Amino acid sequence: MCELLGMSANTPTDICFSFSGLMERGGRTGPHRDGWGIVFYEGRGARAFHDPNPSAQSPLANWVKDYPIKSQIVISHIRQANVGATSLENTHPFQRELWGRSFSFAHNGQVPDVKKKPLQFYLPIGDTDSEHAFCWILDQLRKRFPTRPDSPQQWLPLVASVSRQLAELGVFNMLLSDGEVLLSFCSTKLCWLTRQAPFNHASLKDTELTVNFAKETTDQDKVTIIATEPLTADESWQAYSSGEFRAFLHGTSIFESSADEPQR
Amino acid sequence: MCELLGMSANTPTDICFSFSGLMERGGRTGPHRDGWGIVFYEGRGARAFHDPNPSAQSPLANWVKDYPIKSQIVISHIRQANVGATSLENTHPFQRELWGRSFSFAHNGQVPDVKKKPLQFYLPIGDTDSEHAFCWILDQLRKRFPTRPDSPQQWLPLVASVSRQLAELGVFNMLLSDGEVLLSFCSTKLCWLTRQAPFNHASLKDTELTVNFAKETTDQDKVTIIATEPLTADESWQAYSSGEFRAFLHGTSIFESSADEPQR
After folding, report:
1. Shortest CB distance from B101 goes to which of A44, A96, A125?
2. CATH number, domain at A72?
């Protein structure tokens, strides 16, 4: 298994605190030794860092941890390899362009039979089932919407629907973004919380680090964090249910659907 | 104008020395203050760093300069903005997937009318003429070769031909790679050199740094560097002629064509 970390915020925010916790799980407090990656969106651009080495020992991870890159959307992933060798091309998040936007995707789980699904526009560069699943999702979006819809509300239901199809093939927890919205789907394990005023202290579970968000933020700030497991000990994380899809814009949940709702 | 730097080597090689020289030109010895980027290939994977800040003052550039990432193909670019704002999405090298390979592209010059060329499969994320040109080149490759040809020799002449068409629109010096071959085209200014045994000392022109390659290499190493302007004072750089196209595999020039040859 792997671990996911996502952020959606209404103001450029650094993720150093949460990233510090996640990186500890890459070989120190967790077994995810097979690489890590992170994508920071800045406007329509995306800044990605990938390293097939364990994050807990990675000089690059240390650099990213200490350097406050401010972003409104972040997707990060630490990997424990199941399918595919430990190599740079198999390191999440994966990225592709659709509709003139940079899409990023990270996956936790295994959906080996996804490789039987034929691909049309997008091909994997590495050999993971995860990248194949990402290419297949983008293929479905591109076929249904050859040009970019006016509003994310138009294409979000399709991602919810194809995520549910993929979850039938195995375990499929994922984060996806086009740089505007942050999409999330839970097959087995994912949780989230929104930090907003009044802000409090928070302490990481994986390393001795406490932050007083009241000193770091303004009253208008709204920051949602999504993670495989709660990263802090003293905040109220909400668990996703199995089959729950949720999309965030500027830190606010703007679309949700669950497994027992009729497909839209 | 901008400056380009490329490397093709027969063994994983760090580019710290040449990159150090280039980065000085990003706001210290040169006027290229509008961002920089670099892509390192490792197998089929590509590790990219982009920063819209001047390279000479960039903490990320310092990190990359000091951390020996070993690669067989590198493409780097420092930017002085002409078309498009100074932003992450306008920072070269640009990347797209074609044939299940990660393609990277960096451009020096201006070809504003390229934006009149319609695009089919690939769309720009930012608003530079350079990224539009890259998308158009990949469109031509994809239309002519829907699947990956067995040998680069099959598709290299098409890139030479479309590069010449783009050079008719203005100034078009470029570097392009699929992670296997490094392609280069010179419209106005580009030079290259190959370092191989017997190795000697080399001194950067832009900062006080000398390296003794004899101590850093083996007799089998072959490393070709391509740059807008010579980076060292004591090596024999060969200037490209206008309209010259050249492709390198493992540091060796495997394909060349010049403006006065009949189109193949």
Report:
1. A125
2. 3.60.20.10
